[in-house]
Backbone:
């Protein structure tokens, strides 16, 4: 990565999902993670929230008999790789919220 003391300019793409979101009969999060791996992106992590509130205003949380959890899928790589990756997954994202931010990455 050649990050040195000042770091490397990268982008972080965060996709806000629900555990019930699906693509092609399986989890949307699993689909996007698999595509990130195939695209050889620098990193992708799926995070599960204890609770979350989305556009609907409903509180999403894990229940004993029902799962309705908020998920965040975080992908990090260069702008040259994030932009085409986002274009390649648009058709499966539905109405998921996507946030793309410029970040500086370095190894501690």
Residues:
């Amino acid at each position: 990565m050649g990050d040195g003391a000042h770091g490397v300019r990268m982008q972080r793409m965060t996709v806000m999902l629900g555990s019930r979101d699906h693509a092609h009969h399986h989890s949307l999060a699993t689909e996007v993670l698999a595509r990130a791996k195939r695209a050889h992106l620098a990193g992708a992590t799926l995070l599960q929230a204890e609770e979350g509130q989305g556009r609907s205003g409903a509180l999403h949380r894990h229940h004993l008999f029902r799962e309705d959890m908020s998920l965040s899928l975080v992908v990090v790589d260069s702008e040259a790789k994030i932009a085409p990756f986002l274009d390649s997954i648009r058709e499966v994202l539905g109405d998921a919220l996507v946030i793309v931010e410029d970040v500086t990455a370095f190894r501690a």
Remarks:
- The longest strand covers residues 8-18.
